[in-house]
Backbone:
Protein backbone atom coordinates (compact mmCIF):
# COMPACT_ATOMS: atom_id res chain seq x y z
CA UNK A 1 0.00 0.00 0.00
CA UNK A 2 2.78 2.42 0.90
CA UNK A 3 4.59 1.52 -2.29
CA UNK A 4 1.44 2.33 -4.32
CA UNK A 5 1.24 5.75 -2.66
CA UNK A 6 4.90 6.39 -3.38
CA UNK A 7 4.47 5.37 -7.01
CA UNK A 8 1.41 7.60 -7.39
CA UNK A 9 3.24 10.49 -5.75
CA UNK A 10 6.17 9.93 -8.10
CA UNK A 11 3.86 9.84 -11.11
CA UNK A 12 2.17 13.14 -10.25
CA UNK A 13 5.51 14.72 -9.39
CA UNK A 14 6.80 13.72 -12.83
CA UNK A 15 3.75 15.25 -14.49
CA UNK A 16 4.10 18.41 -12.46
CA UNK A 17 7.77 18.86 -13.24
CA UNK A 18 7.56 17.62 -16.81
CA UNK A 19 10.78 15.67 -16.34
CA UNK A 20 9.77 12.84 -18.68
CA UNK A 21 9.98 14.68 -22.05
CA UNK A 22 13.77 14.86 -22.34
CA UNK A 23 15.36 16.17 -25.53
CA UNK A 24 16.25 12.63 -26.63
CA UNK A 25 12.76 11.29 -26.00
CA UNK A 26 11.14 14.22 -27.80
CA UNK A 27 13.31 13.58 -30.85
CA UNK A 28 12.30 9.91 -30.93
CA UNK A 29 8.61 10.64 -30.36
CA UNK A 30 8.54 13.27 -33.11
CA UNK A 31 10.05 10.86 -35.61
CA UNK A 32 7.58 8.13 -34.68
CA UNK A 33 4.62 10.49 -34.93
CA UNK A 34 5.82 11.89 -38.25
CA UNK A 35 6.20 8.37 -39.68
CA UNK A 36 2.76 7.37 -38.38
CA UNK A 37 1.19 10.48 -39.94
CA UNK A 38 2.85 9.87 -43.30
CA UNK A 39 1.75 6.22 -43.30
CA UNK A 40 -1.78 7.35 -42.48
CA UNK A 41 -1.71 9.85 -45.33
CA UNK A 42 -0.54 7.15 -47.74
CA UNK A 43 -3.35 4.82 -46.66
CA UNK A 44 -5.91 7.63 -46.98
CA UNK A 45 -4.74 8.36 -50.54
CA UNK A 46 -4.93 4.67 -51.45
CA UNK A 47 -8.42 4.43 -50.00
CA UNK A 48 -9.63 7.57 -51.77
CA UNK A 49 -8.55 6.14 -55.14
CA UNK A 50 -9.41 2.51 -54.50
CA UNK A 51 -5.75 1.46 -54.56
CA UNK A 52 -5.07 -1.62 -52.41
CA UNK A 53 -8.03 -0.67 -50.20
CA UNK A 54 -11.74 -0.76 -51.14
CA UNK A 55 -13.34 2.54 -52.14
CA UNK A 56 -15.84 2.56 -49.29
CA UNK A 57 -17.24 5.00 -48.51
CA UNK A 58 -16.83 7.20 -51.57
CA UNK A 59 -15.12 10.10 -49.82
CA UNK A 60 -13.38 13.22 -51.01
CA UNK A 61 -11.48 16.08 -49.42
CA UNK A 62 -12.99 19.25 -47.98
CA UNK A 63 -11.11 21.11 -50.69
CA UNK A 64 -13.71 19.76 -53.10
CA UNK A 65 -16.29 22.24 -51.77
CA UNK A 66 -13.90 25.18 -52.23
CA UNK A 67 -12.99 24.11 -55.74
CA UNK A 68 -16.61 23.43 -56.72
CA UNK A 69 -17.66 26.86 -55.45
CA UNK A 70 -14.86 28.44 -57.48
CA UNK A 71 -15.95 26.65 -60.63
CA UNK A 72 -19.55 27.82 -60.22
CA UNK A 73 -18.46 31.39 -59.51
CA UNK A 74 -16.21 31.40 -62.59
CA UNK A 75 -19.11 30.13 -64.69
CA UNK A 76 -21.34 32.99 -63.54
CA UNK A 77 -23.53 30.62 -61.51
CA UNK A 78 -22.50 31.69 -58.01
CA UNK A 79 -26.12 31.57 -56.82
CA UNK A 80 -26.08 27.78 -57.22
CA UNK A 81 -23.63 27.54 -54.30
CA UNK A 82 -26.31 28.79 -51.91
CA UNK A 83 -29.76 28.39 -53.48
CA UNK A 84 -31.72 25.16 -52.92
CA UNK A 85 -34.35 23.92 -55.35
CA UNK A 86 -36.58 22.59 -52.56
CA UNK A 87 -38.85 24.49 -50.19
CA UNK A 88 -36.76 26.99 -48.26
CA UNK A 89 -38.10 26.10 -44.83
CA UNK A 90 -37.62 22.36 -45.22
CA UNK A 91 -34.17 22.89 -46.70
CA UNK A 92 -32.91 25.00 -43.79
CA UNK A 93 -33.96 22.29 -41.33
CA UNK A 94 -32.32 19.44 -43.22
CA UNK A 95 -28.92 17.95 -44.02
CA UNK A 96 -29.29 18.70 -47.73
CA UNK A 97 -27.07 20.86 -49.92
CA UNK A 98 -28.14 22.81 -53.02
CA UNK A 99 -28.70 20.58 -56.05
CA UNK A 100 -26.50 22.68 -58.31
CA UNK A 101 -23.64 22.52 -55.85
CA UNK A 102 -24.08 18.76 -55.52
CA UNK A 103 -24.04 18.34 -59.29
CA UNK A 104 -20.79 20.25 -59.80
CA UNK A 105 -19.08 18.13 -57.12
CA UNK A 106 -20.17 14.90 -58.78
CA UNK A 107 -19.02 16.13 -62.17
CA UNK A 108 -15.59 17.03 -60.79
CA UNK A 109 -15.21 13.73 -58.92
CA UNK A 110 -16.61 11.63 -61.81
CA UNK A 111 -18.29 9.55 -59.13
CA UNK A 112 -22.10 9.55 -58.70
CA UNK A 113 -21.74 7.94 -55.26
CA UNK A 114 -19.30 10.54 -53.97
CA UNK A 115 -20.04 11.99 -50.53
CA UNK A 116 -21.22 15.59 -50.89
CA UNK A 117 -19.99 18.60 -48.94
CA UNK A 118 -21.74 21.84 -48.07
CA UNK A 119 -20.38 25.36 -48.42
CA UNK A 120 -21.05 27.56 -45.39
CA UNK A 121 -18.64 30.40 -46.03
CA UNK A 122 -19.66 33.99 -46.90
CA UNK A 123 -19.15 35.33 -50.45
CA UNK A 124 -15.87 36.91 -49.39
CA UNK A 125 -14.32 33.44 -49.47
CA UNK A 126 -15.09 33.24 -53.18
CA UNK A 127 -12.27 35.74 -53.68
CA UNK A 128 -9.94 32.79 -53.01
CA UNK A 129 -12.05 30.02 -54.53
CA UNK A 130 -12.59 31.72 -57.89
CA UNK A 131 -8.90 31.83 -58.96
CA UNK A 132 -8.45 28.19 -57.94
CA UNK A 133 -11.40 27.22 -60.13
CA UNK A 134 -9.45 28.10 -63.27
CA UNK A 135 -6.94 25.33 -62.53
CA UNK A 136 -7.43 21.60 -62.71
CA UNK A 137 -8.55 19.99 -59.45
CA UNK A 138 -5.21 18.47 -58.48
CA UNK A 139 -3.25 21.52 -59.63
CA UNK A 140 -5.51 23.77 -57.55
CA UNK A 141 -5.17 21.46 -54.55
CA UNK A 142 -1.37 21.48 -54.78
CA UNK A 143 -1.25 25.27 -55.11
CA UNK A 144 -3.64 25.77 -52.17
CA UNK A 145 -1.95 23.31 -49.83
CA UNK A 146 1.61 24.02 -51.00
CA UNK A 147 1.42 27.78 -50.58
CA UNK A 148 -0.43 27.45 -47.28
CA UNK A 149 2.05 24.95 -45.83
CA UNK A 150 5.06 27.01 -46.95
CA UNK A 151 3.66 30.19 -45.40
CA UNK A 152 2.77 28.27 -42.22
CA UNK A 153 6.32 26.96 -41.87
CA UNK A 154 7.66 30.47 -42.52
CA UNK A 155 5.39 31.76 -39.74
CA UNK A 156 6.68 29.16 -37.28
CA UNK A 157 10.21 30.12 -38.28
CA UNK A 158 9.51 33.82 -37.62
CA UNK A 159 8.03 33.09 -34.19
CA UNK A 160 10.62 30.60 -33.00
CA UNK A 161 13.73 31.73 -34.86
CA UNK A 162 14.43 28.09 -35.71
CA UNK A 163 14.66 26.44 -39.12
CA UNK A 164 14.31 22.77 -38.14
CA UNK A 165 10.53 22.81 -37.79
CA UNK A 166 9.58 20.43 -40.60
CA UNK A 167 9.75 17.37 -38.34
CA UNK A 168 7.49 18.86 -35.61
CA UNK A 169 5.07 20.03 -38.31
CA UNK A 170 4.91 16.54 -39.83
CA UNK A 171 4.41 15.09 -36.35
CA UNK A 172 1.54 17.45 -35.48
CA UNK A 173 -1.57 15.60 -36.65
CA UNK A 174 -3.83 18.65 -36.99
CA UNK A 175 -1.49 20.31 -39.51
CA UNK A 176 -1.08 17.09 -41.46
CA UNK A 177 -4.82 16.47 -41.57
CA UNK A 178 -5.45 20.06 -42.66
CA UNK A 179 -3.02 19.55 -45.55
CA UNK A 180 -4.54 16.21 -46.54
CA UNK A 181 -8.15 17.40 -46.66
CA UNK A 182 -7.18 20.79 -48.14
CA UNK A 183 -8.87 22.86 -45.44
CA UNK A 184 -8.14 26.49 -44.56
CA UNK A 185 -6.50 26.23 -41.11
CA UNK A 186 -3.13 27.22 -42.59
CA UNK A 187 -4.70 30.46 -43.81
CA UNK A 188 -6.30 31.18 -40.44
CA UNK A 189 -3.02 30.55 -38.61
CA UNK A 190 -1.09 32.73 -41.06
CA UNK A 191 -3.46 35.68 -40.67
CA UNK A 192 -3.52 35.46 -36.86
CA UNK A 193 0.17 34.62 -36.44
CA UNK A 194 1.61 37.32 -38.67
CA UNK A 195 -0.93 39.76 -37.25
CA UNK A 196 0.44 39.08 -33.78
CA UNK A 197 4.02 39.52 -34.98
CA UNK A 198 3.20 42.92 -36.53
CA UNK A 199 0.93 44.15 -33.74
CA UNK A 200 3.44 46.17 -31.72
CA UNK A 201 5.37 47.71 -34.62
CA UNK A 202 2.65 48.06 -37.26
CA UNK A 203 -0.76 47.82 -35.60
CA UNK A 204 -2.74 48.90 -38.68
CA UNK A 205 -1.13 46.19 -40.80
CA UNK A 206 -1.81 43.68 -38.03
CA UNK A 207 -5.46 44.75 -38.04
CA UNK A 208 -5.62 44.34 -41.81
CA UNK A 209 -4.38 40.76 -41.45
CA UNK A 210 -6.84 40.03 -38.66
CA UNK A 211 -9.65 41.41 -40.83
CA UNK A 212 -8.90 38.74 -43.42
CA UNK A 213 -10.52 36.27 -41.03
CA UNK A 214 -13.91 37.65 -42.05
CA UNK A 215 -14.23 34.51 -44.18
CA UNK A 216 -14.74 32.84 -40.77
CA UNK A 217 -16.49 35.71 -38.98
CA UNK A 218 -16.86 33.87 -35.65
CA UNK A 219 -13.04 33.76 -35.43
CA UNK A 220 -13.01 37.55 -35.07
CA UNK A 221 -14.56 37.41 -31.56
CA UNK A 222 -11.45 36.38 -29.57
CA UNK A 223 -9.34 38.81 -31.60
CA UNK A 224 -11.74 41.64 -30.78
CA UNK A 225 -11.52 40.84 -27.05
CA UNK A 226 -7.73 40.65 -27.31
CA UNK A 227 -7.38 44.04 -29.02
CA UNK A 228 -9.90 45.78 -26.76
CA UNK A 229 -8.02 44.59 -23.68
CA UNK A 230 -4.89 46.36 -24.93
CA UNK A 231 -6.68 49.44 -26.29
CA UNK A 232 -5.28 48.65 -29.72
CA UNK A 233 -7.58 51.11 -31.48
CA UNK A 234 -5.52 51.36 -34.66
CA UNK A 235 -5.45 47.59 -35.02
CA UNK A 236 -9.21 47.44 -34.41
CA UNK A 237 -9.75 50.11 -37.04
CA UNK A 238 -7.51 48.24 -39.49
CA UNK A 239 -9.41 45.01 -38.82
CA UNK A 240 -12.79 46.65 -39.36
CA UNK A 241 -11.63 48.44 -42.52
CA UNK A 242 -10.04 45.29 -43.95
CA UNK A 243 -13.11 43.14 -43.31
CA UNK A 244 -15.43 45.81 -44.70
CA UNK A 245 -13.29 46.25 -47.83
CA UNK A 246 -13.23 42.51 -48.52
CA UNK A 247 -16.98 42.20 -48.04
CA UNK A 248 -17.58 45.21 -50.27
CA UNK A 249 -15.32 43.77 -52.96
CA UNK A 250 -17.17 40.45 -52.83
CA UNK A 251 -20.48 42.26 -53.23
CA UNK A 252 -19.22 44.26 -56.21
CA UNK A 253 -17.77 41.21 -57.96
CA UNK A 254 -20.41 38.59 -57.20
CA UNK A 255 -23.54 40.66 -56.68
CA UNK A 256 -25.22 41.92 -53.53
CA UNK A 257 -27.83 39.19 -53.76
CA UNK A 258 -25.12 36.73 -52.73
CA UNK A 259 -24.97 38.42 -49.33
CA UNK A 260 -28.76 38.32 -49.01
CA UNK A 261 -28.71 34.59 -49.82
CA UNK A 262 -25.90 34.00 -47.36
CA UNK A 263 -27.66 35.60 -44.38
CA UNK A 264 -31.15 34.34 -45.22
CA UNK A 265 -30.25 30.78 -46.26
CA UNK A 266 -26.72 29.70 -45.42
CA UNK A 267 -26.49 31.10 -41.88
CA UNK A 268 -29.73 29.54 -40.54
CA UNK A 269 -29.03 26.30 -42.42
CA UNK A 270 -25.50 26.05 -40.98
CA UNK A 271 -26.77 26.88 -37.50
CA UNK A 272 -29.36 24.10 -37.67
CA UNK A 273 -26.86 21.59 -39.05
CA UNK A 274 -24.22 22.28 -36.44
CA UNK A 275 -26.79 22.11 -33.64
CA UNK A 276 -28.50 18.93 -34.85
CA UNK A 277 -25.65 16.64 -35.83
CA UNK A 278 -25.06 17.82 -39.37
CA UNK A 279 -21.42 17.17 -38.51
CA UNK A 280 -20.04 14.57 -36.14
CA UNK A 281 -19.69 15.81 -32.58
CA UNK A 282 -16.50 13.76 -32.54
CA UNK A 283 -14.60 16.15 -34.81
CA UNK A 284 -15.99 19.38 -33.36
CA UNK A 285 -13.97 20.71 -30.44
CA UNK A 286 -16.18 23.29 -28.76
CA UNK A 287 -17.89 23.14 -25.35
CA UNK A 288 -21.24 23.02 -27.18
CA UNK A 289 -20.28 19.94 -29.18
CA UNK A 290 -18.88 18.31 -26.04
CA UNK A 291 -22.23 18.54 -24.27
CA UNK A 292 -24.00 17.20 -27.36
CA UNK A 293 -21.50 14.34 -27.60
CA UNK A 294 -22.30 13.39 -24.00
CA UNK A 295 -26.03 13.36 -24.76
CA UNK A 296 -27.02 16.85 -23.60
CA UNK A 297 -29.68 18.89 -25.35
CA UNK A 298 -29.27 22.04 -27.41
CA UNK A 299 -30.33 24.38 -24.59
CA UNK A 300 -27.89 22.91 -22.04
CA UNK A 301 -25.14 22.87 -24.67
CA UNK A 302 -25.70 26.56 -25.43
CA UNK A 303 -25.61 27.43 -21.73
CA UNK A 304 -22.32 25.57 -21.24
CA UNK A 305 -20.88 27.15 -24.39
CA UNK A 306 -21.81 30.62 -23.16
CA UNK A 307 -20.38 30.00 -19.67
CA UNK A 308 -17.05 28.63 -20.94
CA UNK A 309 -16.86 31.38 -23.54
CA UNK A 310 -17.32 34.14 -20.96
CA UNK A 311 -14.81 32.62 -18.53
CA UNK A 312 -12.24 32.18 -21.30
CA UNK A 313 -12.82 35.72 -22.56
CA UNK A 314 -12.22 36.98 -19.01
CA UNK A 315 -8.97 35.01 -18.78
CA UNK A 316 -7.88 36.27 -22.21
CA UNK A 317 -8.71 39.84 -21.24
CA UNK A 318 -6.63 39.58 -18.04
CA UNK A 319 -3.61 38.07 -19.80
CA UNK A 320 -3.85 40.50 -22.72
CA UNK A 321 -3.88 43.46 -20.31
CA UNK A 322 -0.63 42.75 -18.47
CA UNK A 323 1.10 39.64 -19.79
CA UNK A 324 4.31 39.55 -21.80
CA UNK A 325 4.04 39.65 -25.59
CA UNK A 326 4.55 35.90 -26.06
CA UNK A 327 2.17 35.07 -23.23
CA UNK A 328 -0.52 37.34 -24.69
CA UNK A 329 -0.13 35.74 -28.11
CA UNK A 330 -0.28 32.21 -26.66
CA UNK A 331 -3.46 33.07 -24.76
CA UNK A 332 -5.16 34.43 -27.87
CA UNK A 333 -4.60 31.41 -30.10
CA UNK A 334 -5.24 28.93 -27.26
CA UNK A 335 -8.59 30.58 -26.52
CA UNK A 336 -10.14 29.89 -29.92
CA UNK A 337 -11.53 26.38 -29.22
CA UNK A 338 -13.09 27.60 -25.95
CA UNK A 339 -14.62 30.80 -27.34
CA UNK A 340 -15.76 30.30 -30.93
CA UNK A 341 -19.03 28.54 -31.62
CA UNK A 342 -17.81 26.24 -34.40
CA UNK A 343 -14.35 24.74 -34.64
CA UNK A 344 -13.26 21.39 -36.07
CA UNK A 345 -10.25 19.24 -35.26
CA UNK A 346 -8.11 20.44 -38.17
CA UNK A 347 -8.55 24.01 -36.89
CA UNK A 348 -6.23 23.03 -34.03
CA UNK A 349 -3.48 23.86 -36.52
CA UNK A 350 -3.77 27.41 -35.19
CA UNK A 351 -3.15 26.16 -31.62
CA UNK A 352 0.36 25.08 -32.60
CA UNK A 353 1.18 28.79 -32.42
CA UNK A 354 0.19 28.80 -28.73
CA UNK A 355 2.73 26.09 -28.02
CA UNK A 356 5.49 27.92 -29.87
CA UNK A 357 4.76 31.23 -28.14
CA UNK A 358 4.71 29.62 -24.68
CA UNK A 359 7.89 27.66 -25.38
CA UNK A 360 9.62 30.84 -26.49
CA UNK A 361 8.61 32.64 -23.30
CA UNK A 362 9.50 29.76 -20.98
CA UNK A 363 12.90 29.39 -22.65
CA UNK A 364 13.81 32.89 -21.45
CA UNK A 365 13.76 31.76 -17.83
CA UNK A 366 12.54 28.28 -16.88
CA UNK A 367 9.47 26.11 -17.20
CA UNK A 368 6.92 26.44 -14.43
CA UNK A 369 5.13 23.41 -12.94
CA UNK A 370 2.83 21.62 -15.39
CA UNK A 371 3.95 23.68 -18.41
CA UNK A 372 5.97 20.92 -20.08
CA UNK A 373 3.19 18.41 -19.47
CA UNK A 374 0.54 20.71 -20.91
CA UNK A 375 2.73 21.47 -23.93
CA UNK A 376 3.04 17.73 -24.56
CA UNK A 377 -0.71 17.25 -24.07
CA UNK A 378 -1.52 20.09 -26.48
CA UNK A 379 0.80 18.60 -29.08
CA UNK A 380 -0.90 15.22 -28.77
CA UNK A 381 -4.38 16.76 -28.61
CA UNK A 382 -5.35 16.13 -32.27
CA UNK A 383 -4.44 12.45 -31.91
CA UNK A 384 -6.29 12.21 -28.59
CA UNK A 385 -9.36 13.65 -30.31
CA UNK A 386 -9.09 10.99 -33.01
CA UNK A 387 -8.52 8.14 -30.58
CA UNK A 388 -10.76 9.16 -27.67
CA UNK A 389 -13.32 11.74 -28.71
CA UNK A 390 -14.08 10.53 -32.23
CA UNK A 391 -13.73 6.80 -31.63
CA UNK A 392 -14.84 6.38 -28.01
CA UNK A 393 -16.90 9.50 -27.31
CA UNK A 394 -14.57 10.70 -24.53
CA UNK A 395 -14.05 14.48 -24.85
CA UNK A 396 -10.82 14.81 -22.86
CA UNK A 397 -9.79 17.60 -25.23
CA UNK A 398 -11.75 20.17 -23.25
CA UNK A 399 -9.82 19.33 -20.07
CA UNK A 400 -6.52 19.81 -21.91
CA UNK A 401 -7.60 23.11 -23.45
CA UNK A 402 -8.77 24.44 -20.08
CA UNK A 403 -5.59 23.16 -18.45
CA UNK A 404 -3.47 24.99 -20.99
CA UNK A 405 -5.26 28.27 -20.26
CA UNK A 406 -4.67 27.68 -16.54
CA UNK A 407 -0.91 27.29 -17.00
CA UNK A 408 -0.93 30.56 -18.96
CA UNK A 409 -2.65 32.25 -16.01
CA UNK A 410 -0.06 30.64 -13.73
CA UNK A 411 2.74 32.18 -15.80
CA UNK A 412 0.99 35.57 -15.73
CA UNK A 413 0.95 35.39 -11.94
CA UNK A 414 4.65 34.51 -11.90
CA UNK A 415 5.41 37.44 -14.23
CA UNK A 416 3.53 39.85 -11.99
CA UNK A 417 5.53 38.66 -8.97
CA UNK A 418 8.79 39.00 -10.85
CA UNK A 419 9.55 35.28 -10.55
CA UNK A 420 10.15 34.88 -14.30
CA UNK A 421 11.43 37.22 -16.98
CA UNK A 422 8.99 39.06 -19.23
Residues:
Amino acid sequence: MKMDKVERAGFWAALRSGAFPTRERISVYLRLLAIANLVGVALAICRAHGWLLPLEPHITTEFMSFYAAGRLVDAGAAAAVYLPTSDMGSYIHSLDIPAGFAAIQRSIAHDPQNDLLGFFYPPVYWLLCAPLGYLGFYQAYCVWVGLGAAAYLALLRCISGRWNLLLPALAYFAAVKNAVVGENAFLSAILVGFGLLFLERRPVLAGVLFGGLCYKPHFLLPIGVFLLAQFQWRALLGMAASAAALCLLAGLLFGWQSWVDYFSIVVPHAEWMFEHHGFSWGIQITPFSTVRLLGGGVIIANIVQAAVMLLTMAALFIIARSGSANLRAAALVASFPLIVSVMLDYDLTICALAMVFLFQQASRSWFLPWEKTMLAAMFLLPLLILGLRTSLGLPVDQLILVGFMLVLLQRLRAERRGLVSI
Notes: The CA atoms of residues 191 and 292 lie 31 Å apart. The first helix runs from residue 2 to 17.
